[in-house]
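Q: Could you fold this chain for me?
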Amino acid sequence: MFNIFKREGLFGDISQITPDEAFKKLSEDKENKNTLVIDVRESHEYNGNLGHIENSHLIPIKLLPLKIQELEKHKDKDIIAVCHSGARSYSACTMLKRHGFNKVHNLKGGMLLWKKMGLKTHM
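A: Sure. Below is the predicted structure, expressed as structure tokens.
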């Protein structure tokens, strides 16, 4: 049976992080800022009814290849990629891994699951 949350990709497994785990990690890391959240949705989605995660950085998936070099300074940080449901962020994780980012995590279920679990969002 095919499990969509554990995909074996060209560059190895992509780490999945649940909304609860991500929220806990971000809450514990507020002072150290060792975790970067990259939201790969379009701006109308980021500012739409699902909102976005506090302090997340909007980099639409189509612009991510152009922003990889700017993200180099964050290679030592944990990076959580976020989208609507988890598909585009999975692609973003794959792209980041291909460029040497080893601490990338895909937000399982995306903002749909984050919001469904009642976690705080910003509009």
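A (continued): The helical segments are 19-28, 43-46, 64-71, 87-98, 110-116.
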